[in-house]
Amino acid sequence: MNQHEQDQYWMGQAMRLAAKAEAQDEVPVGALVVYQGQCIAEGWNQSIGSHDATAHAEIMALRQAGLALGNYRLLDCTLYVTLEPCMMCAGAMVHSRIARLVYGAADAKTGAVDSNLQLLATPGLNHRISWQSGVLEQDCANQLSAFFKRRRAEHKAARLLTRAQQAGSSE
After folding, report:
1. In this predicted model, what pLDDT tens digit does every residue of 31-44 receive, in sequence order?
2. Which PROSITE patterns does the record associate with it (predicted)?
3. For residue 147, what are the contacts with CB-CB under 8 A and spacing of at least 6?
C-alpha cells in the first residue's frame, strides 16, 4: 500500500471514531496516532460530556499515545484527524513532537494549520511537523455537515414544541 492509500485507510478509521463522538452528541471529530504502521491511540471529541474544553479528539489521542509509548515525545508518529486542528491542538502536536499530521476537512473558522492560521509554519518553533490536508476531505466535511444540520433541526423542533406548549397553557 502506498502512502496515499495508507492515509485514506487511516482517515477512514478516524471517521469511524468521529461517529463515536456523534453517538455521544459530541461534534463528530475523530483522531488516531499511528506508529510503525500500527494504530497506538484513538480519540474523539469528548468536550461536551466531560465538561472539558481540552477534550478534543487530537488531545485525547495524543494523551493515549504518550501512555502507549511511555513518553510524551511521539517521534516518528503520524496523527490522523478528520478536521483541521485548532490552535490548542496544533500547539499540543508541536510539544508532542509528532512527525506528521494528516487531516481531512478544512476549518475556516478555527483551523490553525492552513485555513485561518498557519501555526505549524511559525518561525522559531522547536519542532517542525509535516502535514497533508484534504484526505477524504469531502467525506469528513459531509460527516460534520450532517451532524450540524441534524442538530439545527432538533433545536428548531424543540423551539416549536416549547411555543406550542406555551400557547396551549395560556388558553
Report:
1. 999 999 999 999 99
2. CYT_DCMP_DEAMINASES_1 (PS00903), CYT_DCMP_DEAMINASES_2 (PS51747)
3. 22, 27, 28
**CA neighbours closer than 13 Å in the CB half-sphere of residue 130:** 6
The CATH fold assigned to 3-169 is Cytidine Deaminase; domain 2 (3.40.140)
Residue positions in the annotated binding site for Zn(2+)? 56, 86, 89
Q: The whole model's pTM is what?
A: 0.91
> Does the pLDDT value for residue 170 go beyond 80?
no
What single-letter amino acid sits at 95? H
Q: Which residues are annotated as catalytic? A: 58
Contact between residue 45 and residue 27 where contact means Cβ atoms under 8 Å apart:
yes
Question: How many helices and strands (H and E) does the chain possess?
Answer: 5, 5
Domain boundaries, the chain: 3-169
Instruction: Give the C-alpha separation, 117 to 124, whole Å.
Output: 16
Q: What is the DSSP string of 43-105?
A: EE--HHHHT-TT--HHHHHHHHHHHHHTSS--TTEEEEEEE---HHHHHHHHHHT-SEEEEEE
